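Predict structure. Chain length: 355.
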Amino acid sequence: MLKDLQLGPVKIGFPIVQAALSGYSDWPMRVIAKRHGASYAICEVMLDQFLVALKNRKRTGHFLHISDEEHPVGGQLMGAEPEQFAAGALKLVEAGFDVIDINFGCPVKKVLGRCRGGYHLSQPDVALDIIRRTRDIVPAHVPVTVKMRRGIDDTQESRDNFFTILEGAFTTGVVGITVHGRTVQQRYVGPSKWEFLAEVKQVVGDRVILGSGDLFTAQDCLDMITQTGVDGVTVARGAIGNPWIFAQARALAVGERLPDAPSLHEQREVIREHFRLAEQLYDAKRCGILMRKFGMKYSVMHPQHQEVREGFAKVRCREDWDAVLAQWYTEDLPGCHPDPSIHRPQAEDDCGQAA
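Prediction complete.
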């Protein structure tokens, strides 16, 4: 049995949660994850300057859309300038997010070049100023958390900066920190260093640390917790097209065997519902194109995944989506558990963009 996760005054519960994923963890994905056992999910990362300038318009309203059933839900923020960052955090609070998460992990070149994301790991003073200003402006009942990689690179200076930010963040009032086991320089090359997560947890004691990196199966999630002692984990790529990973982890956590992969009819109902939710959020013309990437991820659990993937890749509208379901999901065949190896060669950034 795993210990329930709590972030300050916000009770999360089961400690395996949905990570922020740029371009993916919008309202439909978060709702689907919640219905399949995710106790908590974080929205796709948003830029502070975008939030500060954001108007209440139909075309951009989806960014801050939250529904009652998904609470607690986190809003993740990224930026460069401390004062503007804090103003953006307040916009997330006003939108109704229960937790504000600061992104100091994104390793994308264009993000680093604009002094955002993982760049802040090279400048502890600025990073801690951002955290202080954010904690000061956010109401006391709303927890603030931070997402970090283990440093810019593997130098001693980078390591020192990491622990300076880590300790300073907790001192400032941050209630939990997610640590990804790779450096910014690594991006996604090489394995995530889980032993570093164990070291961090040993250093911080009872304070909350969540782990991230190389979580593609339900067993991976439990293994990270048991091997490193972290208080929970955030699942990123492993949850795209596989919301069942959360229910599977819950089953394993209470000593049950790994549930069978969902049958094609079970998959079909979730895939159909995901599209229906997306139609509520986006206009019909945009919805088909936006949902392609999700369909391609769902296809991994089909026994003829390559052909199904090709079908979803051509989707432009609801009729195309329904046609793929009619062609490939009519017969109720057994589904397949995703092959973790298909994820590992791909690149994904900490602000979540999966390629």
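Summary: Confidence is low (pLDDT under 50) at residues 345-350.
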